[in-house]
Structure formats: C-alpha cells, structure tokens
Design goal:
Layout: E1 3-5, E2 15-16, E3 26-30, E4 34-37, E5 43-46, E6 52-63, H1 64-77, E7 84-87, E8 92-97, E9 105-108, E10 111-120
Length: 124
C-alpha cells in the first residue's frame, strides 16, 4: 500500500493512503537541460541530471479524517519546503510536492477532493 513518510510527521509514522487515488495517475520525467547559443550560432547544452520522475494524481472522495491527516502532513513539511519519502507500494522515492498540492474542496457533506503533484529530488 502506498504511503508518505517524514521524520517530523507523527514521530516518523507512515501516512498510509486511506483510499487509492482516482484512475488516471500521471507519471513523467522532468529535465533541467540548459541550452545556450554562442554568437557564432553554435548550441551548447548542459544536462545537470538525467531527469527526475514526476507524479500527479487526485482523490475525489476522501473522508474528513484523511483530509485532516493530509493537511497535517502538508503543514508539517511546510508544503514544498521539505522533501519526504513517497512509497508507491513497491519502491521508495525522495520527493517534494508542488506548492499548489493538497488544497481541498468539499464535494459532499464531510467528503473532500484534492490533488497532489510530486517531483523526485535528492534527499535534503
């Protein structure tokens, strides 16, 4: 089962997902290539790394208790300030969330929807 983990959150306890994310989890790879062109028209490219994995998904029907756990986790790590561990059920990654992640909308009485975007980083 997938989970998040950070030493500052609940004494390092895993935040296990109450429900699986909606169908349509997007994965990709973000590159930070720097392309420069000289006065003579020659292009120079610097590739600082071979790309970092990205994830994006949403939950459309979560309980108020799971919402509270996600809010506490988000606030504990300071949004995109601290990196944390994301385990997809088989592999662990050190990630950082996007600044607009885990904003909640009440979709039904005491049921919420939200989304999250993650990017693989080096441990901080």
């Amino acid at each position: 089962m997938a989970y998040f983990n950070h030493a500052d959150y609940d004494s390092g306890t895993n935040l296990t997902f109450e429900v699986t994310p909606d169908i349509g989890i997007a994965t990709g790879k973000k590159f930070s290539n720097i392309i420069s062109e000289s006065f003579g028209g020659i292009e120079y490219i610097v590739q600082p790394h071979s790309g970092k994995k990205t994830w994006s998904w949403s939950w459309s029907n979560i309980s108020s208790s799971f919402k509270g756990e996600l809010e506490t986790f988000r606030n504990t790590i300071g949004g995109n300030y601290k990196s944390f561990t994301y385990n997809d059920g088989s592999t662990s990654y050190t990630v950082r969330m996007a600044p607009d992640s885990l904003q909640f909308t009440e979709s039904q009485y005491q049921r919420y929807s939200t989304n999250i975007k993650l990017r693989e980083v080096s441990p901080s």
